[in-house]
Design goal:
By secondary structure, this protein is an alpha+beta fold. It has helices at residues 5-32, 39-60, 91-95, 168-179, 191-199, 213-225, 239-242, 250-260; strands at residues 64-68, 72-74, 78-89, 102-109, 112-120, 125-130, 135-137, 140-141, 154-157, 184-186, 205-209, 229-231, 244-248. The protein has 2 domains: 5-141, Fructose-1,6-Bisphosphatase, Chain A, domain 1; 150-261, D-Maltodextrin-Binding Protein, domain 2, CATH 3.40.190. A hairpin with a 4-residue loop joins strand 5 (112-120) and strand 6.
């Protein structure tokens, strides 16, 4: 468990926003069958959750800046601290009534990720981490899986949707490379939950391109604090600005990187 004042603030904000999302998920089923569909409702739910997080975190830590999926960048008076927030990661799942979505909150200090939280209100799983303090799923300390061979491993990926089909050619090449080398592949639809699952030792690895800081900052620290390795898909270290992610234990992360090296 992490019992710091910072984590108390983060978990309280996530639980408050999560209650709203859970209620809204219940409403989706009704809208699924309407002609208009749940699209606008989901956008509104997303924005409501972000507003709650923004208000709660601003009140508890006045002056910190924000980088948010919906609201964009809000400069703070404290230039060294920035929250990276995704109020609803896994929007497509949520839209379809699948309880595979998460709130993701990371605190970045001087370009270093110092704290992360991923909360799935659909399953009540709360993942928390602070730099140097380990990573926890609810009250249990997490540890990445111990498998040493990619050929024995279950690897998660992200698939660009049709709306971003220009990314399909590269995705297909990398997918083919991992299909040929890993035990099997999965796709959950939430970058935050994919990384949380790597930290928890459920997935052996995960990679995805075309993602944003709010999708992966919390999860990246989570994996590292659970003993894993994280880089961009190109093998660089800048997770906050890199736009892609590749994670696993030290063996699997290295083997995955080698499998896709030179493709991108
Ligand atoms: P979202 O659900 O918040 O949109 C799925 O492949 C992952 O990619 C999810 O974490 C999803 O976040 C993210 N994602 C989907 N579309 C995106 C976009 N247009 N820009 C950035 N990230 C996106
Ligand atoms: Ca997201």
């Amino acid at each position: 468990m992490i019992r710091s004042a910072l984590m108390t603030v983060m978990t309280a904000a996530a639980q408050k926003a999560g209650r709203g999302l859970k209620r809204d998920l219940g409403e989706i089923e009704n809208l699924q069958v309407s002609v208009k569909g749940p699209g606008d409702f989901v956008t509104a739910a997303d924005k409501r959750a972000e507003k709650v997080l923004f208000e709660e975190l601003s009140r508890a830590r006045p002056g910190y800046g924000f980088v948010m999926e919906e609201g964009g960048t809000v400069e703070g008076t404290d230039k060294s601290h920035t929250w990276h927030i995704d109020p609803l990661d896994g929007t497509t799942n949520f839209l379809h009534g699948l309880p595979l979505f998460a709130i993701s909150i990371a605190l970045v200090r001087e370009d270093q990720i110092v704290a992360g939280l991923i909360f799935n209100p659909g399953t009540d799983e709360m993942y928390v981490t602070e730099k140097g303090q380990g990573a926890f799923l609810n009250a249990t300390r997490m540890r990445v899986a111990a498998r040493r061979k990619l050929s024995d491993s279950l690897i998660a990926c992200g698939i660009p949707p049709l709306a971003r089909a220009k990314h399909h050619p590269l995705f297909k090449q990398e997918f083919a490379a991992l299909l040929a080398t890993s035990g099997n592949l999965r796709r959950l639809g939430s970058a935050a939950l994919d990384l949380a699952a790597v930290a928890a030792g459920r997935f052996d690895g995960y990679w995805e391109r075309n993602i944003q800081s709010w999708d992966v900052t919390a999860g990246a620290l989570m994996v590292r604090e659970a003993g894993g390795f994280v880089s961009t898909a190109d093998g660089t270290d800048d997770i906050v600005h890199g736009g892609s992610i590749l994670a696993g234990n030290e063996y699997i992360q290295r083997e995955m990187l080698a499998a896709i090296k030179g493709i991108g």
